[in-house]
Write a structure and sequence with these properties.
The protein has 317 residues and is of the alpha/beta class. Helices cover 47% and strands 15% of the residues. An 8-stranded mixed beta sheet has the order 1-2-4-3-5-6-7-8, with helices on both faces. β7, α11 and β8 form a beta-alpha-beta unit. α2 packs across α8, α4 crosses α5 and α7 crosses α8. The termini are far apart. The mean pLDDT is 90.
């Protein structure tokens, strides 16, 4: 009875709840732009793509920027604004690009389509690196963004200085059946399941915040671009062990150990197959290290970039 009254109370607040995530995204956008970033749009692969940029690289000039490029790729149902906790700090040192993937944030979709499938989205990433950044790039991806980045690394290894994977998706496990509980959970059939997903994603979700933003969160996962993308993924698109064991670019893994969003066994798949790669497990951190442990992620990007530079200098000498 108490739970029913609580549900009824929060249902009354649905209009405010639906505004919660847009309001938070507004603050995140202001934070990025206040520190010198600009918003840009480009037509790529038949899509209008939006991204945030801060740096000294001018693609129209023959002069090279003295700073290394850094490319940030978000995950499923997210947007470039997920990087707002680390974007301003990284922009002091790098030419930073944070993309809204097709259908997310302020990016569009191909004419007549309601989503892009995995390979189509991966091809968009490779085109962005080739045509917008145009230089060997350190790529940082979270969740689906990390899955896409691994696939892109096989297409254009010469344009990837390295990869940093934050709680990546794409582990094959035992096939699509292993992912069914995940698929069921993000279907967000009722508000209770919505709150469960929110708690599974984040290590610490204050109860009032969970309830306040639950309608916004449900609306995000019920969007057509999310539902149809998930429904279209095929088993042969998941990563294979050899995709990681023989990955052609230096790669590091960061994993928030309390992540219950991805299917069980995902961490073990990446840990066991990224042989020889740095692996960092974060306590008290769930699916979104860039939001939950931003200082660690920022420092790690710096240290990993320095290690890549030193390794290249050693090879050259």
């Amino acid at each position: 009875m108490r739970q029913d009254r609580e549900e009824a109370l929060w249902a009354v607040s649905a209009p405010l709840s639906r505004a919660a995530v847009p309001i938070m995204n507004g603050f995140a956008r202001r934070k990025i732009l206040r520190h010198g970033a600009v918003q840009r749009d480009i037509r790529l692969n038949g899509m209008n793509i939006h991204y945030y940029y801060a740096g000294q690289h001018d693609p129209e000039s023959d002069m090279l920027s003295p700073r290394q490029p850094l490319f940030l790729v978000h995950g499923l149902a997210d947007s470039a604004l997920t990087w707002s906790f680390i974007f301003p700090q990284l922009a002091r040192w790098y030419d930073v690009y944070a993309i809204d993937l097709p259908g997310y944030g302020l990016s569009g979709l191909p004419d007549g389509k309601t989503y892009t499938h995995l390979d189509e989205t991966k091809e968009l990433l490779t085109s962005f690196i080739q045509e917008v950044i145009g230089r060997p790039t350190l790529v940082v991806g979270n969740s689906m963004g990390a899955w896409l980045a691994v696939k892109a690394a096989w297409d254009i290894p010469e344009l990837m200085r390295g990869l940093i994977l934050l709680n990546p998706g794409g582990a094959p496990l035992k096939g699509r059946v292993s992912w069914q509980p995940f698929l069921d959970s993000i279907s967000c059939r009722d508000l209770r399941s919505v709150r469960r997903v929110m708690r599974h994603m984040l290590d610490h979700s204050p109860r009032p915040l969970v309830y306040l933003s639950q309608f916004s969160f449900r609306d995000i996962f019920l969007r057509q671009v999310v539902r149809e993308f998930v429904a279209a993924v095929q088993e042969d698109e998941f990563l294979r062990p050899e995709d990681l064991r023989q990955i052609p670019v230096p790669t590091a893994l960061i994993w928030g150990i309390t992540d219950q969003f991805l299917p069980e066994g995902s961490y073990n798949f990446f840990r066991d197959n990224l042989t020889g790669s740095p692996v960092h497990v974060l306590k008290h951190c769930g699916h979104l290290p860039q939001r939950e442990q931003p200082r660690f992620v920022e420092r790690f990007i710096h240290s990993y970039d320095e290690a890549l530079s030193q390794s290249k200098s050693t090879v050259v000498s």
